Amino acid sequence: MEQYLSRRLFLGSSATAIVALTFPLGSLAAAERFPTSKSPQQWRRILSRQRYAVLREEKTEPPFSSPLDREKRRGTYACAGCSLPVFSSTAKYDSGTGWPSFYAPLRNAVGTRADNKLSFERTEVHCRRCGGHFGHVFNDGPKPTGKRYCLNGLALLFNPG
After folding, report:
1. Model confidence pTM above 0.85
2. Among the listed residues 106, 110, 112, the one whose alpha carbon sits nearest the alpha carbon of residue 138
3. Which of 20, 101, 120, 122 is 20 to 30 A from 26, comparing alpha carbons?
4. What is the pLDDT of residue 129?
5. Catalytic residue set
């Protein structure tokens, strides 16, 4: 019986390791299907190294490093990967976190999924069209939604007007 449990534990652990190596946590977005789809090589050709790291590898830019955090003009923020308009300047506010923050996205612009990479669960926010990683949404924002979409400036393009 003890040998059976050890073999069962070994096989279960091996299967878990194979899944973890095949689908690393940072690439869960790759398993989803999006209307705009490109290979990693194609994304690398059209995105800067920093934008690729944020949009495709779910990295985070340093706080207070993005000029978009200080942007005050009226306009629209679009996905830096596929140019889909995703946030309006009318929903932007200064959260004091060092990243551009919004209380609501444009209609049908973003998707979300659970992010358990840290020791607590967060909600990841990405582009509905290309799956590009924007940042995270938290429940500590202002009215009317109470949401704080805390985003990487590198994931966005600002279009004034």
Report:
1. no
2. 112
3. 101
4. 97
5. 150
